[in-house]
Amino acid sequence: MSIEKILQSLTKLDMLHTSLLEIAYKKTEAIKTGDMDSLNQLLKDEQAHVAGISQLEQQRQTEVTDYLRAKGIAPTDNPTVALVLENTNINEEKEQLGIARNKLLLTLETLKHQNDLNQKLTLQSLQFVNLTLDTLRPKPDQINYSKSEVQAPSKGKAYFDSQA
Q1: What topology is assigned to 3-136 in CATH?
Q2: What is the mean pLDDT of residues 24-52?
Q3: Burial readout 3-25 (b: 16 or more C-beta within 10 A, e: otherwise)
Q4: What percent of the chain has pLDDT over 90?
Q5: Cβ contacts of 21 within 8 Å, gap of 6 or more
Q6: With 0-12 CB in 10 A as exposed, 13-18 as middle and 19+ as buried, what is 85?
Q7: What is the rounded distance in angstroms from the CA atom of residue 118 to the CA atom of residue 3?
Q8: Keywords on this record (predicted)?
Q9: How far apart, in whole angstroms, are the C-alpha atoms of residue 22 and residue 16?
């Protein structure tokens, strides 16, 4: 068995993750501008990508397991491309696989950084909203629970004037 199927899966995974990265960049702009409609649509697109990536990742794991079995290596719980690289003797295949793997890893690292940024921006937005709400909410000493108006006595003035 050759590594061709594994290479195809890695290429497809990289394409989907690159597309997911584009969505992450668009999410950053939507968060910055407060465009909730765009953000909602981007979240839906993101979910569809994640579902596709999940399916493709399962396929990649199956292909790696099949490749390793064909080489007489017992499958592991986490069949990795690194394990395939360790057990590939053909230099051209090893090089192609290494390039595809490194490209995907770079895309994943970039995506992780962009998602971290989006998470921080979202948290800052929530903090701003909470701060704004706190300034708009009345303070407990400003709330009047009775029907008649209650005022605290003025400082410096007495209730009774002693001039008679």
Answers
A1: Methane Monooxygenase Hydroxylase; Chain G, domain 1 (1.20.58)
A2: 95
A3: bebbbebbebbbebbebbbebbe
A4: 66
A5: 107, 110, 111, 114
A6: middle
A7: 36
A8: Bacterial flagellum biogenesis, Cell projection, Cilium, Flagellum
A9: 10
Contacts of 11 by beta carbon, 8 Å cutoff, 6+ apart: 100
Residue 132 confidence (pLDDT): 84
Asked if the model's pLDDT at residue 146 lies above 80, the reply is no
Cβ-defined contacts of 108-111 (< 8 Å, 24+): 108/17, 110/21, 111/17, 111/20, 111/21, 111/24
Encoding tokens for residue 80? Answer: 């990795």
Q: For the whole prediction, is pTM greater than 0.85?
A: no
Rounded CA separation 23/53 (Å): 14
CA distance 14 to 9: 9
- What one-character-per-residue DSSP string does 55-119 give? HHHHHHHHHHHHHHHHTT----SS--HHHHHHT---HHHHHHHHHHHHHHHHHHHHHHHHHHHHH
